[in-house]
Amino acid sequence: MPPFATPAPNGCALELLDICCTFRSREDAGQRYAAVSNTTLRINAGEFVSVVGPTGCGKSTLLNIGAGLLAPSSGAVRVFGQALHGINARAGYMFQSDALMPWRSALENVMLGLQYRGVPDGEARSQAQAWLARVGLGDFGDRYPHQLSGGMRKRAALAQVLALDPDIILMDEPFSALDIQTRQLMENEVLDLWAGPGEGRRAAPRPEPTPSGGGRAAAGGSYARKAVLFITHDLDEAIAMSDRVVVLSAGPGTHPMGEFIIDLPRPRDVAEVRHQPRFVELHTQIWSVLRDEVLKGYAQQLKTAA
Ligand SMILES: Nc1ncnc2c1ncn2[C@@H]1O[C@H](COP(=O)(O)OP(=O)(O)OP(=O)(O)O)[C@@H](O)[C@H]1O
């Protein structure tokens, strides 16, 4: 019996177990390309885990498998101990390109997921408004996506995800298109929201818990942190934000090469934490593993392009 046939270890939100994923090769339709090989990745409830790896190694493939958008060729996915079949309903997603509908205002975009869940319009509207306020867009609910800056669209997308109160948040390079200052603001914003009331850099009020979203409370009434799987190219971002950083090898057949606990104190300011000696130490350790993979990935890209 494979080791993952047993129930999940206590507290695991998402488990990717011995995952392999092959695609029909883009260069030769008769061949298969092994994108991911024998990869096991566990994310505990409330844990913030970043996955870094060279371009094209298979990071998004793993995230899509965790989201249930893509079925692995072999291996298993468990969500809070249950086998995943189809879409991962306990997860919210934030991708590189935002998923805002251009014909709906920011408020209507945030309301949409709640309406799909059957939340009555009036309640969906007030929850969406509360989340927009929480991400600093309280006065921008009537704006359409094209009337918002890149950073504001990201805030709206974040409100869209958080309004649904998922237990797991899957983020695929959500801020890579932003300028560095906006990016750092957004990273800090995400950390504050993830940390919960009174735990972030500034103690901020949250919307009142409601049965259908807007800040579900854990048993006992306290805020339950979400598990986050964060995909990024940027090692600084990964270290600044995470509890744990997983390094993937270059493809084909990507798999974890190393795993690092980020023991920097929280709350963190992503711009300031980079100056701490421990940050520099961790960066040096992780980069020593990542660097060769990045070089291999780059060489492969050149070969493919030739
Ligand atoms: N549907 C598909 N069909 C064929 N090949 C695919 C498919 N999806 C992904 N691949 C290939 O699998 C590999 C991994 O892709 P993936 O997008 O997961 O990498 P990534 O690490 O997220 O890339 P990036 O760093 O550029 O975002 C790549 O070589 C890609 O070309």
From TrEMBL:
SMART domains: AAA. Keywords: ATP-binding, Cell membrane, Membrane, Nucleotide-binding, Transport. InterPro entries: AAA+_ATPase, ABC_transporter-like_ATP-bd, ABC_transporter-like_CS, ABC_transporter_ATP-bind, P-loop_NTPase. It comes from the Bacteria. The keyword Transmembrane helix does not apply. Pfam families: ABC_tran (PF00005). Residues 14-275 form the ABC transporter domain. GO terms for molecular function: ATP binding. The keyword Flavoprotein does not apply. Residues 196-219 are annotated as: Disordered. Belongs to the ABC transporter superfamily. This is ABC transporter ATP-binding protein. It comes from Polaromonas jejuensis.
